[in-house]
Specification:
- It is a single chain.
- This protein has 422 residues and is mainly β.
- Helices cover 1% and strands 50% of the residues.
- The strands form 8 sheets. The protein has a 5-stranded antiparallel sheet with strand order 1-2-33-32-31, with no helix packed on it. Strands 3, 4, 5, 6 and 7 form a 5-stranded antiparallel sheet that branches. Strands 8, 9, 10, 11 and 12 form a 5-stranded antiparallel sheet that branches.
- The longest helix has 4 residues.
Length: 422
């Protein structure tokens, strides 16, 4: 397997439209730019490997692997594609990787995830699973791919590391304990696992050496939707979010201080599927209202705030996907990519919207093109060096038997491109 298809690139520069009311303070007009990439596998024997966190601004990380349901060896190409807006071809780094099962278990399809590590590496998580065998343990593996020289370092078979990936019973339902949300440094990363009475973790370095799994936090945790940990600054600790498995779907937001002490910051009932922004020194959170499918509950605050208030954002359709959010400077609200069918918009679709702290939709821009409704999609909102707000989106089209393609769009908008909602 020497090649996996062709990456096509289209780079488009557009003059931004001028509107009388713009987002934020007045600034010189900046052109609106779009870059578009696409990857189509050569045949249906190849599957695309991705994860929830495989976009970083205008860079996308993905893999293309042999599609065999039960095999002890799997060949992949791991790619990092860095797009740009200035007419040049995207920079593509790729490495051939062969995964070998050390246990004799199968390396199964769709049990991978891929994300970045530091300046020049990617983390590929994969499993050795027993297939039809019974009473055989699955084994958790991590391969660290270095794009500078294509060296690959893989964790050894370890019963200790296997502890992180297990299924835990709760109210007749089983939940996976392992989080795909890693805390990453330049040359190492931390993997977390949640069980009923503790949060466990292991540190893995760029050489594929894993520390012994240990209890990081000891307190009752809620099983349901996995808790998520976000690193704050070194002197602040971590932000922990968890949603209880109950009829009320109680979401708790807590600060884990550097000494391991937990401080609950806020909670809210009847929400799920939270998304977080830590941009501009603020903590912004939005979560789906479980009682109204077109409403989200949001908050934005700084650590140390005595009052943390939640507000409703209406006319937001999640369509089975988590939106991305971005904190604007203090007092200005959020940016969010949403699906909507409101009368203020020309058609049903996806828009990048400014939302005030009163929950009202203030301004919008259309970041066409969009993913198909049947695609899996992942989004990232960021601010570029020219002060423009950008939305990157990756679309994975798939059927029950195969993944068909990966498409990647990144759109940047000058302040004048946002249209006022009256």
């Amino acid at each position: 397997m020497t090649t996996f298809g062709i990456f096509n690139a289209v780079v488009i520069a557009l003059n931004g439209l001028i509107f009388p009311i713009i987002l934020g303070s007045v600034s010189p007009a900046v052109p609106t730019n779009r870059t578009e990439l696409s990857y189509y596998p050569e045949n249906d024997k190849i599957e695309i490997v991705y994860s929830e966190n495989f976009i970083e601004n205008t860079t996308v990380y993905y893999g293309a692997c042999d599609r065999h349901s039960e095999t002890t060896q799997k060949k992949c190409i791991i790619r990092r594609v860095r797009a740009n807006f200035w007419g040049a071809s995207p920079k593509v780094d790729e490495c051939n990787v062969t995964l070998h099962s050390e246990s004799g278990n199968f390396i199964t399809s769709r049990d991978y995830s891929i994300t970045s590590l530091g300046k020049d590496r990617a983390i590929l998580k994969w499993l050795e699973k027993p297939g039809q065998k019974t009473n055989v343990t699955s084994h958790l593996r991590f391969s660290i791919v270095n794009f500078s020289d294509c060296t690959v370092k893989t964790t050894k078979l370890s019963e200790d590391l296997d502890q992180l990936d297990k299924w835990i019973p709760n109210d007749l339902v089983f939940y996976e304990s392992l989080s795909d949300n890693y805390i990453k440094g330049e040359d190492d990363f931390e993997v977390f696992s949640f069980d009923k009475m503790s949060v466990n973790k292991s540190s893995i370095n760029a050489e594929g050496i894993a520390s012994k799994v240990g209890k990081w936090l000891t307190y009752p945790t809620y099983l349901g939707h996995l808790a998520t940990i976000f690193p704050l600054s070194k002197d602040q600790g971590y932000l922990l979010m968890e949603v209880s498995h109950s009829m009320e779907s109680l979401m708790t937001v807590a600060l884990i201080q550097p000494n391991g002490q937990r401080q609950n910051l806020t909670h809210i009932k009847s929400v799920n599927y939270p998304v977080v922004s830590l941009d501009n020194g603020l903590i912004g959170i939005c979560a789906q209202d479980m009682l109204k499918d077109t409403t989200m509950k949001c908050t934005q605050f700084k650590l140390g705030d005595k009052e943390i208030n939640w507000f409703s954002v209406s006319n937001v359709k999640r369509n089975g996907r988590r939106p991305a959010i971005y904190n604007l400077p203090m007092g200005e609200g959020f940016l969010m990519n949403i699906f909507t069918s409101d009368i203020y918009y020309p058609s049903i679709g996806k828009y990048l919207v400014k939302i005030g702290l009163d929950g009202k939709l203030k301004q919008f821009v259309d970041p066409s093109p969009k993913c198909s409704h049947s695609d899996y999609s992942s989004d990232k909102i960021f601010k570029d060096d020219l002060g423009r707000y950008c939305l990157s989106t990756a679309c994975i089209a798939w059927t029950e038997d195969q993944y068909n393609y990966l498409r990647f769009f990144s759109n940047c908008f000058g302040l004048e491109a946002f249209e006022n909602i009256s």
